[in-house]
Amino acid sequence: MLRRILFLLLALAAALTAGWYALQRDDIGYDRLELVYGKPDSRIATLENGLRVHYRDTGPRKAPVIVLVHGFSASLHTWDAWVSDLKRDYRVIALDLPGHGLSTCGDASEIGVDQFVATVDALTTKLGVDRFVLAGNSMGGRTAWSYALAHPQRLDGLVLVDASGWPPEEADKKSEPVVFRLLANPLARRLMKNLDSTMLVRSGLKDSFSDDAFVTEEMVNRYVALGRAPCHRDAIMTLSAARGKDAPATAAGLAAISVPTLILHGEEDNLVPVSAGRKFEAAITGSELVVYPATGHLPQEEVAARSVADLRDFLARRVFVEAEGAGAGATSPNGAAH
């Protein structure tokens, strides 16, 4: 009997090992990914530190500038609807952060918010942009408010879209999506790193929307494919291991932000709860909060028309305000015609 049980256990272990190997997936080269996921206006900038950063730069050259920063494991594609709308009146720069989209990693061990802040600063400087409005979603929102603290003199405005950074409360930890619970475990990360991630990506995306009908197979395939770019899986694992270890947002620290700030948040976000948006509003003097009912973690996609309209209204009222009686040709704070 014992011999039979041992045989069954060995057979099960062999089957699991074979299955694990069968699910291993190789990297996909940037050249192949660029053919599928590059945009007609895609550009690559090589920074002084050797990073190759993929970005879009569209809209009138002399218009006020808006820079868009995506979240964890995402890419500049998350801003497509906003870019299509805003580029009529603004110069819009959307970038892939290091280790995401079509951007390279450099040293994956260095990846994190500090590197992201430095990348935004280096790219905008390279493009000759002195001042801009910075908008970020989720981890990109954390990058945005961190940038506002580090480089306040360069910003005309700040937009936080379901931005992360506040320490999670116990109730939030219990409702955390399964993909993040797995990524929090060192052994699970090691086992999952090179596996086919389609199932987990689909699950994570469905957790990101209130209406999971937004999660298409094209979206899932894009996230999976871009996640297989060289070094991207190392970057995601490094970010996952560091989750919760970065300096958190605090009311005292954020009080230093004086630039006009708009906070947009989905009421049904179960990744970054709406309470975080309310904390940002309370901490940043003069900030404005818009909460979207029946909306999850990605308002720029789930309520694209409403959220970009709220952004336009904010920019017109608080940032690029026309001089009294000047009419449509008034100048913005960065000297560009608007």
Q: Which structural traits does this protein have?
A:
single chain, Rossmann fold, 43% helix, globular, 338 residues, alpha/beta, 15 helices
Please explain how this structure is put together.
Strands 1-2-4-3-5-6-7-8 form an 8-stranded mixed β-sheet, with helices on both faces. The chain has a domain at 33-169 and 247-329: Alpha/Beta hydrolase fold, catalytic domain (Rossmann fold), CATH 3.40.50. It is of the alpha/beta class and 338 residues long. Residues 11-21 and 323-338 have low confidence and may be disordered. It is built from 15 helices and 8 strands. It has helices spanning 2-22, 30-37, 80-86, 113-126, 139-150, 170-174, 178-183, 186-192, 198-208, 217-226, 232-242, 251-254, 274-283, 299-302, 304-319, and strands at 42-46, 52-58, 65-69, 91-95, 132-137, 155-161, 261-266, 288-292.
What's this model, at a glance?
With 338 residues, this protein is of the alpha/beta class. The chain has helices spanning 2-22, 30-37, 80-86, 113-126, 139-150, 170-174, 178-183, 186-192, 198-208, 217-226, 232-242, 251-254, 274-283, 299-302, 304-319; strands at 42-46, 52-58, 65-69, 91-95, 132-137, 155-161, 261-266, 288-292. α13 links the parallel β7 and β8.
